[in-house]
Amino acid sequence: MRINGKRAESDRPLAAGDEVVYYMTAAQEAARVCTTLYEDENVLVVDKESGVSSEALFSFLKEKYGPDGVYFLHRLDRNTEGVMIFGHTMSASEVLISAFSEKRVKKIYHALVFGAMPRPHGILHAYLKKDEKRALVRVLPAAAPRALPITTEYEVLEARGEMSLLKITLHTGRTHQIRAHLAFVGHPVVGDEKYGDHVRNKRVHMTRQRLLSKELSLEIPAGPLSYLSGKIFTSLKNL
Length: 239
Known about the structure:
The protein is α+β, with helices and mostly antiparallel strands. The protein has 2 domains: about 1-105 and about 220-235, Alpha-Beta Plaits; about 110-210, Pseudouridine synthase. Helices cover about 20% and strands about 35% of the residues. The protein contains 5 helices and 13 strands. It has helices at about 25-30, 55-65, 90-100, 175-185, 200-205; strands at about 1-5, 5, 20, 35-40, 45-50, 80-85, 105-115, 120-130, 135-140, 150-160, 165-170, 210-220, 230-235. Strands 4, 5, 6, 7, 8, 9, 10, 11, 12 and 13 form a 10-stranded mixed beta sheet that branches. Strands 2-1-3 form a 3-stranded antiparallel beta sheet, with no helix packed on it. The longest helix has 12 residues, at about 55-65. The radius of gyration is 19 Å and the shape is globular.
């Protein structure tokens, strides 16, 4: 990346008017960024590829639809794949942003983790604290200053030897919640290099977390986007 023509440093603050340029290799440019799952005049729902940052995806979509043809609403980690939704108009985006902020958007994830879960279904509670300087979060068993409560629900979909495939429902949506919370209870996401088990990741040759945004649904009871209520947008991918 370059800012105003100069190589970007990790601690370089941005100011209004700065020009930020993001460079990709020829292989990255040739790689598929996403697949369209649903589109109408108001919204665009896509299936993001692993290894593509949300910001790079948004840049790709702006090239396709123009700067006023697509609006950024939420993000997924670069190595998390699956369903994302964008607005096509400012008015639609405002409705969707309200739905996110008011927790009227339901997201279901699939995660491949190490180990066998103690029960086929469970609801995990803990507290999460951000470490802004290290771009990490830490999960704590009890309340602490600046730590926020987290609730993560899981259901075992399939046992795969030393691994388990889980369906994850987030009751709170904190930064890195799924990865950090599952690692905290001893079942890190396979391939997670930030919170996971590096030794086991190396043994199974996984360098990207096996985490999928599988489903997204909206609750919009009234207004021009109410037709989206009850629709479930599902990723075509499987872990």
